[in-house]
Design brief:
The complex is a heterodimer of chains A (312) and B (317). Chain A is mostly helical and 312 residues long. Chain A is built from 15 helices and no strands. Classes of the chains: A mainly alpha (312), B mainly alpha (317).
Chain lengths: 312, 317
């Protein structure tokens, strides 16, 4: 290994290389995908997944896990396609209440020292139940603003590329470069020392969960803009996909090691995995399996890198 | 007197799940005007039997310590129910091979889960998540459009009653007793508890930590495999979403039953108590005629409420 590329840099590059490899495979199979509209079509659905992934990343940064994000995104889409269209004020209030509820759950987890997995598991029933109450059968209509917003055609590159770039940059500034981000990652790495330094773990957990709620709301609204109608189960698979994307992005799951840029790339990789199969003419039955294989392959590569690092 | 009682309850946290079950049953029966109490118990025993079988495996996995949880259970159930129906192929003579194949499929997935955890050094949640995606795809490929009915003998067996008690409940009770024995009386069982309390100390004490972990993931997979075959027999064939509810259900049942989320302390009676409790909650809400959405909402609030009141210890993942 040449000196100019350190081991940790190689690890950091892994998410980008995975995405590049997948894109290369798609372009090789279908050169026409290498266009403005081709990319737009391929990456369209990555916008909500990126937001959901960042929500999950916030929670993972403080050593928790959110098993309810998929149900929450569905709930937001359901509120958006009903209340938000018919009674905008009430709709906005409902969305704000959802974010506040997320923050409250953070407070509960911290206050009673509960395992986040179990609490968010129960929470997923709550979100799903509310979604079914708001929208018993699939339908409703997205507010016109949302549908136009996600169909904006900016110059040079399609919208998903801009969204990914801006969100990754903001995430990097907030989590990896700001003092706020240091506290966040410190709270995941060593909560006791962060508390001793005078920070309130309660305040940290509440703001992290509320931020996840905001990001989840953005995911739900952008998804609704793309699909134009709601469904109580529309985003149920986002829970697992978001965890997988965060991990693909290089997060180590313990100790506050999270990488926003990697997470965004991971979300795009998993979105593309489905299209890749279609271009390879592999049966869509293997779609979920392909995401699993990619996850295992990347984790295996990372394990190899770590082993080489230890021996060299 | 009161202190002694409190001490005894603290030593047996599963008491709460049975108290909850009894209370829920009473409410349900009073809603329906005192009728149907026995039918409710019979149905609860049958459906809880499935929950208990899978949750016992999940309990063993969770007991091996912080971060250990088996997310592949729904996929294993989807796979094993398809495998069982394919092998049985409506022939009565193939019931035992079919069950064996379903269990073998589960054992294989459990072994693969452990392999991923060990070889890739990744957290069990990620390992079982990745493998569940692959297993689900295999299940989809195997099970798509499969319209094989279970052999009549098998379908009868899983719905039959012995002295008024569903046979399935007897099987699940036997499994619970066996697991309790293994936990308390065998080297493997003691090793599982020891790992959950401190993996490092268990290793220093000379226990075969890796072997116990492997066996635990295989046990969880094997039990899920068996349950998949039984569910297919019970519901007249396999379908891909048969296992979907068991991801949340097993974790909820294990925790509500009093098993420590941070590992090291299992509670076998609590599995039965919590499984019955979860089933009766749904029955109670159905009986009181609430909408499906409200039913899920209340179920979720109850899970959060029970955890918030009862289990206040965080797994330091």
């Amino acid at each position: 290994m040449p000196r100019f590329l350190s081991w940790s840099a190689a690890e950091r590059l892994l998410p980008a290389l995975t995405l590049a490899a997948l894109l290369a495979g798609i372009f090789h199979q279908q050169p026409r995908a290498m266009s403005y509209f081709g990319l737009d079509l391929l990456l369209n659905l990555s916008i909500p997944i990126i937001f959901a992934t960042l929500a999950q990343m916030m929670i993972i940064a403080i050593n928790d896990l959110d098993l309810s994000i998929g149900a929450f995104v569905s709930l937001v889409a359901c509120i958006g396609s009903t209340l938000l269209t018919t009674e905008p004020v009430l709709g906005v209030l409902a969305l704000l209440a959802g974010i506040a509820a997320y923050g409250l759950v953070g407070a509960l987890v911290e206050w009673r020292r509960l395992p986040s997995i179990v609490v968010t598991l129960g929470l997923s029933f709550v979100w799903l139940g509310l979604a079914v109450i708001v929208l018993p059968t699939p339908g409703g209509r997205a507010p016109a603003v949302l549908s136009t917003l996600v169909r904006v055609k900016p110059p040079f590159a399609p919208l998903p590329v801009y969204v990914a770039a801006v969100v990754a940059l903001l995430g990097w500034l907030a989590v990896s470069r700001s003092s706020m981000g240091v506290v966040l990652r410190g709270a995941g790495g060593n909560p006791r020392s962060v508390a001793r330094a005078g920070w309130s773990m309660l305040a940290i957990r509440v703001s992290v969960y509320a931020t996840a709620g905001v990001l989840g709301t953005l995911a739900g609204l952008s998804l609704l803009g793309l699909t134009t109608s709601g469904d109580a189960n529309i985003a149920s698979r986002y829970t697992l996909v978001s965890i997988a994307s965060v991990i693909l992005g290089g997060a180590s799951f313990t100790g506050g090691r999270v990488f926003p840029v990697g997470a965004v790339l991971g979300a795009m990789t998993l979105t593309l995995a489905a299209s890749f199969l279609t271009f390879m003419r592999i049966s869509p039955d293997w779609q979920i399996g392909a995401q699993g294989f990619i996850l295992i392959a990347v984790l295996a590569l990372r394990a190899l890198l770590t082993r080489w690092k230890e021996t060299s | 007197m009161l202190a002694a009682l409190r001490g005894r309850i603290a030593a047996a946290p599963w008491i709460w799940s049975f108290l909850g079950t009894a209370a829920t049953w009473l409410v349900t029966v009073s809603i329906s005007g005192g009728r149907g109490g026995e039918e409710i118990i019979s149905a609860a025993l049958t459906f809880s039997a499935f929950t208990v079988l899978v949750s016992l495996g999940q309990m063993m996995v969770i007991t091996t310590g912080p971060g250990n949880v088996d997310l592949s259970i729904p996929s294993v159930i989807a796979l094993s129910s398809a495998v069982a129906m394919l092998v049985m192929d409506e022939r009565a003579g193939m019931i035992v091979p079919g069950l064996a194949a379903a269990v073998a499929a589960g054992l294989a997935v459990g072994g693969a889960n452990y392999g991923l955890i060990r070889l890739l050094r990744i957290p069990p949640i990620i390992a079982t998540l990745s493998s569940s995606l692959v297993v689900m795809s295999v299940a989809i490929v195997l099970g798509r459009g499969l319209k094989i009915k279970p052999p009549q003998v098998f379908a009868d067996a899983v719905t039959t009653k012995v002295a008024g008690v569903p046979l399935l409940a007897i099987v699940a009770l036997a499994a619970a007793v066996a697991i309790a024995f293994v936990l308390e009386r065998t080297l493997y069982g003691r090793t599982v508890s020891a790992i959950g309390q401190s993996r490092r100390i268990a290793r220093l004490a000379g226990l075969d930590v890796e072997r116990a972990s492997l066996l635990t993931y295989m046990l969880s997979g094997g039990l899920a495999g068996l349950t998949g075959a039984l569910i297919a027999g019970f519901s007249g064939g396999n379908s891909l979403d048969q296992g979907a509810e068991y991801l949340l259900l097993t974790i909820a049942v294990v925790v509500i039953g009093g098993t420590s989320v941070s590992g090291g302390r299992a509670s076998v009676p609590g599995i039965w108590g919590a499984a019955l409790f979860m089933f009766l909650i749904v029955t109670m809400l159905n009986a009181s005629g609430v909408s499906p959405g409200l039913r899920m909402l209340i179920t979720g609030l109850i899970i959060i409420g029970v955890i918030a009141v009862g289990g206040s210890e965080r797994a330091p993942r």
